[in-house]
User: Fold this.
Amino acid sequence: MRKLLNVLYVTTPDAYLALDGENVLIKKDEHVAMRMPLHNLENIVYFGYPGASPGLMGACAEHNIGLCFLTPNGYFLARVTGRVKGNVLLRKKQYFISEENESVGIAASFLAAKIGNSRKVIERAIRDHSLVVDVEALRRVSDALKELMRALNNCTTVADLMGFEGSAAKLYFGVFDQLILHQHDAFFFKERSRRPPLDNLNALLSFLYTLLMHDVSSALETVGLDPYVGFLHQDRPGRPSLALDLMEELRPVFADRLALTLINRKQITGQGFHQKESGGILMDDETRKCVLKLWQARKQEEIIHPYLREKIPFGLVPYVQALLLARYLRGDLDAYPPFFWN
Assistant:
């Protein structure tokens, strides 16, 4: 099993990344602020504009270390990748299936897990907080999501699946505000808003989804799949469709649950967010660092993978799912086993 290594998050303003032998240097004002061996890292996520040296980018590509550039506010800019990894026959099979009706079955698996994991988030709230949530309303939504999962079996096109996905998202986010138990004045949910997020909770969710996107894209590339050719999301120039596909089943578990935990445990507060003149909401540096720290801590927690029946760090789930998808495409598995949170 793959080992979960460290992710280096660089949030220092005006920092520049450079290479010194087998070490990454974080430099500020020509002074070395930090040095870390490359062999301890599996990803580097950089928030800022000064950039990184070509030498470091080349070393990251050579050592299969993901290097992702985000704006200081967490918006995705670019990812550095090296030579294409994996068996070319695997990618050819991926491209072939993406154009055939067989892609409907894979896409349905992604959506079934997304809806199932969304139900689990709601059911956990009923179980743990029955005295402070509207149990009847949450159970109605949970039951409706269960019926949508069953209906996926009758879908024959990706367009049909996307219609059910929209219905499921409307139901799930329609009760998401009830899952916020504390700090409701600062964190509330009316509807999903992006580019820009228009409230604190949407800003937090968008940030967590960006982190998840990086992890999923890196996992797909590691097993030799093309993150830009998907089965559920339509292919568009520059759009990592397969990464978005695989993210669907992981969003409720990785991002939504963590967002609710951060708020309900008061690990972040509304004071860490501010509104721009354009109306968009930004997260301040200290809050971003707190979220990153707890994101990494969550990834270190161990779970029993529902398909492998093995204990793995939570952060390895994207890699395991990417590996299972590759095995299915190669013909080693009869079907793709999506991740259902227990």
Q: What stands out?
A: The radius of gyration is 20 Å. Residues 301 and 313 are 5 Å apart (CA to CA). The first strand starts at residue 6 and ends at 10.
